[in-house]
Design brief:
Layout: H1 2-15, E1 34-37, H2 38-58, E2 84-85, H3 91-103, H4 110-120, H5 127-137, H6 159-162, H7 165-169, H8 175-186, H9 193-208, H10 215-222, H11 231-245, H12 250-264, H13 272-286, H14 290-300, H15 304-319, H16 321-325, E3 336-337, E4 347-348, H17 350-367, E5 371-375, E6 378-383
Parallel strand pairs: 2-3
Antiparallel strand pairs: 1-6, 3-4, 5-6
Length: 406
């Protein structure tokens, strides 16, 4: 264990190696710029996006099925043999990304988001997002639609996790920008503790495009984006501790974690702490194995489809699309069917969605000091890397299970 800690410190130190320009006045020192081939970046973005689609849709049969105990065995499944489709684990983000690309803006103004939501978010919408949509009909505009005072699910809801992963994909190696964009869209429906999840997952995914070290070390780095007094910070620490305490028994780790956070701390099974911890456990026990990580995220339980979507994005961006497509479980046609968001195309290719994300990513790269370059005769980008940073802190007395809004 001591050796592992030393190696982790060395890996983390290498990430903080040099200083370049910063995001925000108080940003920490950032690593040196990194060059990446366009083709490689597309493969990783495509891998993260398709990982989200596979996890979210293939995870649906396991949603809310395993509460007090995990699934007895890991599920076997193929990867979307009929293609992908709209689901709330992907179509909130796809709607925003589609308009971000068309209107060439990274953070759609909140009045514009109200217009987009009124036209598109009228089915397949639940809990905090549904509350936000109803508030829009009453004339309330984000971020007030995500305030605890107006939205009764805003202080715990998982949309702070499952509605933001792609914002890490479009800000490769720039976790501060990823978190900033993620927070902008997360504020539509949530606030307080769920925003700590937003900062963690967007920062982790952003880093995973560039950082090739152990995933556990990447998780530690991403905690730089999280308020240390938040539940999210403690959740990640607990998942790591339990993984090392039970390296060969994921069920034991799952049960101990669930006992503390759901039964003793009383966070419900639609909350970011409970589900975020399950994703962390799935990632740790999955060991960068895409299929096994998906199996674990589904078998852990609670909001299993959302958790598999998040885990799929993290591992997908690390391994890339080509490696996923080469797996024997991959039977997926290049098809995405839209049945819920009327202003978007009824059908599109998943490969075209990945290209859309890359176009948005290019705008992010160029807007944050990066540039287009030629690398060994091939197109690529020079990205000004960033270190994770807390952009939004918890309030002094955050709401929680023992301090619910009145």
């Amino acid at each position: 264990m001591k050796t592992k800690i030393i190696l982790a410190v060395i890996a983390i130190a290498s990430w903080f190696a040099a200083t370049t320009t910063t995001f925000g006045q108080d940003a920490k020192a950032n690593p040196a710029p990194r060059e990446v081939f366009r083709e490689q970046l597309l493969d990783q973005i495509y891998g993260g996006w398709i990982g989200m689609l596979i996890g979210g849709i293939e995870g649906l049969p396991h949603e809310w099925k395993y509460t007090n105990q995990p699934r007895e065995t890991l599920p076997d499944f193929t990867f979307l043999d009929k293609g992908a489709r709209t689901d709330d684990d992907n179509d909130f983000e796809w709607t925003h990304l589609w308009f971000m690309d068309k209107e060439k803006v990274l953070k759609l103004p909140y009045p514009r988001i109200v217009e987009i939501w009124k036209a598109n978010m009228n089915q397949g919408i639940w809990v905090a997002n549904k509350n936000a949509r109803q508030l829009m009909d009453e004339g309330v505009v984000p971020p007030e639609t995500g305030s605890v005072a107006r939205n009764p699910a805003a202080w715990y809801n998982l949309s702070g996790q499952f509605c933001v992963e792609s914002y890490g994909l479009i800000a490769p190696g720039m976790p501060q920008v990823a978190a900033d964009i993620g927070l902008h869209y997360a504020h539509i429906a949530v606030s307080e503790e769920p925003l700590q999840a937003t900062q963690f997952w967007t920062s982790l995914i952003s880093q995973c495009v560039i950082y090739k070290g152990p995933l556990e070390d990447a998780m530690q780095l991403a905690l730089g984006a999280v308020d240390p007094k938040s539940c999210m910070a403690e959740v990640v620490a607990d998942a790591r501790r339990l993984y090392h305490a039970h390296p060969d028994d994921w069920k034991a780790a799952r049960q101990e974690f669930d006992k503390k956070w759901r039964l003793e701390r009383r966070w419900n099974n639609n909350s970011t702490p409970v589900n975020g911890g399950f994703v962390c456990l799935a990632l740790l026990y999955g060991g960068d194995d895409f299929y096994r990580t998906m199996q674990l995220a589904m078998a852990m339980g609670h909001d299993a489809d959302c958790n598999a979507a998040t885990a799929g994005t993290v591992v997908g961006v690390r391994v890339g699309f080509k490696r996923i497509a080469a797996m024997p479980q991959f039977k997926m046609p290049d098809l995405y069917v839209n049945k819920t968001r009327p202003q978007l195309p009824a059908e599109s290719k998943v490969s075209e969605q990945a290209e859309t994300l890359l176009r948005v990513a290019e705008r992010v790269i160029l807007a944050n000091g990066g540039e287009r370059v030629t690398i060994d005769g091939k197109p690529g980008y020079r990205i000004k890397l960033q270190t994770p940073q807390v952009l939004e802190w918890l309030p002094e007395n955050p709401h929680g299970p023992l301090n619910k809004p009145k």
